[in-house]
Amino acid sequence: MKKNLIILSCVTAFATTAFSSDANTEMYKQIQALKAQIEALEKKVAAQETAQTQKVEQPTVTAIDEKRIEKIEKKLDNVSKTATAAKVQSAQDNLKWDVDFRTQVDNIQYKHADGSKSENDALLTNRLWLGAKYKADDNSSFFGKLSYNKAFGDTADHSQSNTNPGYANFDWVTNENATDNTIKLKEAYWLYTKERLFGADIPWSASVGRRPSTDGLPINIRNDQAANSPLSHTVDVEFDGFSIKFDTENVTGFTGSWLKICGGRGLTNATPRFDMFKPAYSTDDEKNVDVDMLGFIAVPYDNGQYSVHMNYAKAWNLIGFDNQSLGDFNTAYGAYTASPSANTAYNLQMATPDFKDVGDIDFATILFKTEGIGNGISDYLDNSIAFASFAASKTNPNSLGMLGSTDSETGTSVWLGVNAPCPILPDSAKIGFEWNKGSKYWRSMTYGEDTYAGSKIAARGQAFEVYRTQKLTEALSFGVSYVYIDYDYTGSNSFFGADGTPMTMAQAQAAGQNPVEEAQDVRVYMRYKF
Fold first, then answer.
1. Which of 33, 77, 111, 352 could bond to 518 as cystine, CB 3.0-4.6 Å?
2. What distance in Å separates the CA atoms of residue 14 and residue 44, rounded to the nearest whole number?
3. Concatenated DSSP letters of 124-161
4. Nearest CA to 265 among 213, 219, 225?
């Protein structure tokens, strides 16, 4: 009896503390009254024990007290349930917002194969991410992210969206390019988690929606933010899809191991509503078929310092231009540049090619990362990060050919990087260096890489980057970086058809083209995150 009363007293005291800050005054009063009743009962029980010691019998009082205590227990149980509901209502029934706002200036320089240059001395942009989170219960959560990315002011042709004929609003990259002043959806997905899979000791989760598929490991290190998935060496692009993750450490015995199966759709074949010739959202046989991707991400080992990451993905029915359409366009473009006129401009517009299904592709990546170099060698090395990544792509073309070839072609890429405390202000600043090199037929899906001079990861050639980030306040940070890309072959930032044909600079010039041979981007930014 006494033990039960003491437990009840503790529960009541805890509830009283929890509710002392709550606005529910009436509930607080009820708990205080119950506490007083329990204190009175404790005194009676103490008196009974004393009487029993003195061989005084009081059975009737004890029976009455038991019944009263049972009633009080029921009351406390009801009050506890109400208190829990009130706590959930006040603490969880709202979206949790976070903000990532960046103002940036880029100095972009291009050198073409013929020695001519293109440049922008100061591209000023604002980028805003509004993140939203909500956890309705222990097993389900929602995540969302709204995005705004725009250059200062308007553009010369008053078409900041760059959609005629450009691809800045293409759904794979709509939030990584400076477009217009609209707010767009970058991420939106629900996440369901469970501690056991069909009774087995395998924690798992499932998710569906607009995926967090850009800024994955290791590009997130340079970008000074948490890693998304998948690995960004082969896939850094916006898309919609699903994922199922299994924590496998308890099954395999390998520290920190897990496996994630991912899939998505990058293009949907559907007739728009109110089309004059076909039913709404029916398949349009004259357009590209659906573009789908399926793969897995695996971490066989991660002890917090050393980790291994693997990624395999296959994409079907990828888009590109066929040789005939691209040849017609290049002819029309040459005529327009030689003699700009309304007639040649019209011919150029009519010759603009449509995307076609050119085949499938396989991607594979393996990455080794260490957070802390060595073991206790120095504080500087303990706070440094290093990684090495190797990736490969393999095309499976149809009769139209991929990357200018009807044969299956394999490309490879190596990517090395280090991130360490800056010798000046090591507690608040980081410096980093990255280098990557891609082969002739290297083809990544990294259109969403957060750069304005083109994806350095996609380079058929080599790229260098050196950067420095510094935290100024709890929310405000400063960053500067320099990227240099030296292209050995053309087509690094193109799609998967004849437009992605790798040619040397000399071959491209002989074909009447003047591709970019070198690219440089110096960027400086201020960023506010909370």
1. 111
2. 23
3. EEEEEEEEEEEE-SSSEEEEEEEEEEEESS--TTS-TT
4. 213
- Of 104, 105, 101, 178, the closest CA to residue 145 belongs to 101
Which residues are CB-neighbours of 441 under 8 A, at least 6 positions away?
Answer: 393, 395, 403, 405, 409, 410, 411, 460, 502
For the CA atoms of 386, 177, 128, 237, the dihedral, rounded to the nearest 10 degrees, stands at -50
Q: What is the SS3 assignment for 294?
A: strand
Q: Which of 22-26, 170-174, 263-267, 360-364 has the lowest mean pLDDT?
A: 22-26
According to the model, what pLDDT value does residue 19 have?
40
Helix (H, G, I), strand (E, B) or coil at 138: coil
Report yes or no: 372 and 358 within 8 Å, Cβ to Cβ: no
Tokens of 360: 């499938």
Nearest alpha-carbon partner for 446 in 330, 322, 361: 361
Q: Cβ distance 483 to 521 under 8 Å?
A: yes
- Which among 249, 218, 244 is positioned nearest to 232, based on CA atoms? 218
Within 10 A of 481 (CB to CB), how many other CB atoms are there? Answer: 20
Question: Hunting for tokens 């909370």 — which residue is that?
Answer: 530
Contact 361, 443 (CB under 8 A): yes
Half-sphere exposure of 87 (CA within 13 A, CB side): 14
Compute CA 328 distance to the chain's CA centroid, rounded to the nearest angstrom: 39
Distance set, CA 153 to CA 104, 170, 178, 451 (Å): 14, 21, 11, 20
Q: Which two tokens stand for residue 530?
A: 């909370």
Q: What is the DSSP letter of 205?
A: E
* DSSP codes of every residue in 486-516: EESSS-TTS-SSGGG----HHHHHHTT---E
- CA 31 to chain CA mean position, Å: 47
Distance (Å, whole) CA 238 – CA 446: 9
Instruction: Give dist(CA 408, CA 385) in Å, integer.
Output: 37
Q: Which amino acid is at 106?
A: D
Half-sphere exposure of 49 (CA within 13 A, CB side): 7
CA atoms 111, 114, 115, 116: torsion sign: negative
For residue 124, name the pLDDT band (cuts at 50, 70, 90): very high
| Distance (Å) of CA 97 to CA 113, 146, 187, 223 | 47, 11, 14, 21
pLDDT band at 43 (very low <50, low <70, confident <90, very high): confident
∠ CA 73-74-79 to the nearest 5 degrees? Answer: 95
Structural element, H or E, at residue 70? helix 59-92
CB under 8 Å to 512, separation ≥6 — which residues?
330, 334
Task: Look at residue 53 in the predicted model and tell me its pLDDT.
Answer: 57
